[in-house]
Amino acid sequence: MQEIFLGTMLVNLMHISVCRYDGAGAQCQCFGESAGSKILSEAETSFLKNIFELKQRKYPGIYALEPDILAGEIRDPAQEDSWILFGPILLAPANAARFQHAGRKFGKLEDIGLHLQICELNTLVAGMILYYGYLTGKELSLAEFLEYNKEEFPSVQKIHERLGRDLFAHQEQAGIHNPYEQERREQDAIRHGDVAALNRSISETYEGKIGQLAKDPLRHHKNVAIGNITLASRTAVEAGVSVEKSFTMADSMIQQIEEIDNVTEVEAFKRMAQRMYADVVAEELQANEGGYKNPLIAAVKDYIFQHFHDSIQITDIAKYLKVNPDYLSHLFKEQEHITIKRYILQEKIRRSRNLLQYSDYSIQEISFYLGFSSQSHFCKVFQEITGETPGHYKRQFANRKKWKIQ
């Protein structure tokens, strides 16, 4: 009963198939909504073994049926030749077309109780580690899980060999990389919100060149851009920008990089992204004039960023941070020279201006999206802060190309 309960909870939490098969594969016990036992036919048993190639190993195993389709297995140490199978899963994120195509290819798995679902890799691994702990009473860390599975990943096994070969080849060719100091100057410019210094650093000439990050030129430039944006996002956090804001910016920029189809545009986009980070840091530094900031201030801003669509209450923030609401309000006002409530309104209006410029949401939709009690309240606050009505502001950008989340 305990195992059935655990299996059912995992299915409900992970939204993937979890089934137990006996040694010969003849008996199947599925958990979750499709809970129940069945005897597999000889053909189904053979199919199961051909697909999963079950192995006699001591630790949970994970392997790829296709590059983006994974399955997991745990051998029950208490019952010889008995396995618990997880998945198969299509790695998230995945689009509908890919899911439908994979579903047709692996549809026959449904006959043995397994249903293809979209799932994140970390979710699959966490569920397997939990189940393994139940079966064995042993704790298994993520690092140990990956170490035990390295035999399934040829590139992991060959990392030392390939690295040694590439280091030797680079030394033989007497090539040099772009100077580290130049990269540091770029990051320092972002750290200080200095766009002019960033532009000077970008324009520097130097010996050496950026290492080859892919054989395809476009992929190489995209990889370099992703690295630059990632570094800029971390530098911005070090300079005081909200972690959530900085990381979300990076997520968006990297996804946009992936959609570009030519090298020149990738390079221009990369530099614009760095400048945007410098601008964001400059805004943060200007707001934080006065020296040391209590770490709670950054935590408050992160909370606000994460709950932008809600009606945010100071008591909720204080409860989340486990501090007294009055103390939090006083601290924020003392260090930011603005109340938390006013900061929330200013940030929401800042976001609304972006939506009014670039989206085709109506004013009513935007007011609802940002958690205002009514459209009239949103309009009143918008005019108070910006000096104009949302309608007048929106009309200035009427001819701009718009987007809308589906």
UniProtKB/TrEMBL annotation:
Stretch forming the signal peptide: none
Ranges that cross the membrane: none
An MF annotation (GO) of this entry: DNA-binding transcription factor activity
SMART domains linked: HTH_ARAC
Keyword vocabulary terms for this entry: DNA-binding, Transcription, Transcription regulation
UniProt domain HTH araC/xylS-type: residue ranges: 298-396
Alphabetical list of InterPro entries matching this protein: Homeodomain-like_sf, HTH_AraC, HTH_AraC-typ_CS, Tscrpt_reg_AraC-type_HTH
The name this protein goes by in its record: Transcriptional regulator, AraC family
The species this protein was found in: Eubacterium ramulus ATCC 29099
